[in-house]
Structures are given as structure tokens and as C-alpha cells.
Amino acid sequence: DGGITQSPKYLFRKEGQNVTLSCEQNLNHDAMYWYRQDPGQGLRLIYYSQIVNDFQKGDIAEGYSVSREKKESFPLTVTSAQKNPTAFYLCASSSNAPGQGGTEAFFGQGTRLTVV
Amino acid sequence: QKEVEQNSGPLSVPEGAIASLNCTYSDRGSQSFFWYRQYSGKSPELIMFIYSNGDKEDGRFTAQLNKASQYVSLLIRDSQPSDSATYLCAVKWGFGNEKLTFGTGTRLTIIP
């Protein structure tokens, strides 16, 4: 089935450690996104990528890093520089096709990260 | 000024009534507008998208876009308890810049 897979679903990290969240899509989408969601809040954009080997900072990129070596994959690393990393992380992808349809974003099931 | 703004709610609506959700955006160059529904602890799912001024209807849902006023809304007719969720407005800034920005969401509760 086509879709977006995030792993793991739950992740625990000790303070001072880097962790990498996985995001894979088989929808042949060009654009991929990482969002962070805190309890009772909306989605805040961390990074996004429109093509392979290119990505842009979103609104809250500090303390995070990404790579886009393959069209299907957009992993997010939460570094020790991120002071408050406990949150729900969502990955999404969308087509860049212009026109009247096909540009909506589809989401993975999310990764809930907790710092212990 | 936030790029995408929504009334945070919560909004309570009796079952069977019309729920009205509103969203404003700051960039006149915005091209694409989306409404997502998110149940607690789950990822957002798309309800509707709209690109042109006017109304777009899909079942009980109607999206309305007014680019001159930089305003997009979602109407839910014959509201059901299963519509209780957080509704997120999202805006994409056109071709060549696929940045997709979300509002803070409006929490909707349908009262039986």
C-alpha cells in the first residue's frame, strides 16, 4: 500500500543524546516535511524539502537537522542542542504538481519523543 | 503577525447544527488552502482543499475562500458527534515554494 511510514512510534531519549526519526514514503512525492506538535498546539514546521539533496529551514529549525539523499526518505535528527525536544513529531509528503489538485500533504502516524 | 491564524476555540455546537470554522492568512501570494481534521493522539487527515475563490462542497463539508480578504472557512452541516476533533487550516505558498504552514487549530465539540 502507498503511504508514509514513520518509525519508531515511541522514542525515549536521555538528555544530551542525539536521536534520529525515520520517515519513508512510497507515494513518489517530491516534497517532504517535518512538523512538531506540542500538547494542545498546532503544527510547527521544522524543515521541508522540495527535491532530493535540497532542504529549507522552517520556523523552528534550531536544534534539528535533516538530510534528503533519496526521494523516498527524509530523516530528522533531534540534536542535544534542542532544549525541549519532548513532543509529537509528524512527517508529511506532497506532490509539487501544479494545477488544481494533487498538492495536499499526507501524514505519517507520528513519533512521540520523550526525554527522560 | 502569524502567517496562518485560527480561533483556538474551543467551539461547541449542538448535534445537527452547522459548525463554522475560520482561518485568515497573511501572504497574498498564497495559492493553496487545506482543512485537516485531527483526533486526539492521531495524525491529521485531509478533509478538503480549495484553490479558487468561492465555495467548494463535499458532502456535509463546504470550504469557502476569499482571497481579497485573505480568509478561508469550513462549514460542517448536520454536525455529528464524530466530527468532534481539532480542525487545522493549512496554507501553501505557491509553486516553486512549497512551504506548508498550519494554523494553531480549532477544537470543535459536537454536543449530543
Describe the structure.
The complex is a heterodimer of chains A (116) and B (112). Chain A is mostly beta strands and 116 residues long. Chain A is built from no helices and eleven strands. The radius of gyration of chain A is 14 Å and the shape is globular. The N and C termini of chain A lie far apart (35 Å). The mean pLDDT of chain B is 91. By secondary structure, chain B is mainly beta. In chain B, strands 2, 4, 5, 9, 10 and 11 form a six-stranded mixed β-sheet that branches. A five-stranded antiparallel β-sheet of chain B has the order 1-3-8-7-6, with no helix packed on it. Chain B is built from no helices and eleven strands. Chains A and B meet through strand 4, strand 5, strand 9 and strand 10 of A and strand 5, strand 9 and strand 10 of B.
Could you give a short description of this structure?
The complex is a heterodimer of chains A (116) and B (112). Chain A has strands spanning 4-7, 10-13, 19-25, 31-37, 43-51, 54-57, 64-66, 76-78, 87-94, 106-107, 111-115. Chain A has 116 residues and is an all-beta fold.
Tell me the β content of chain B: over 45%
Number of strands of chain A: 11
Subunit arrangement of the protein: heterodimer
Q: Share of helix among residues of chain A? A: under 10%
Radius of gyration of chain B: 13 Å
Q: Characterize the main sheet of chain A.
A: 7 strands, mixed
Strand % of chain A is over 45%
Tell me roughly what share of residues is in helical segments of chain B.
under 10%
What is the overall shape of chain A? globular
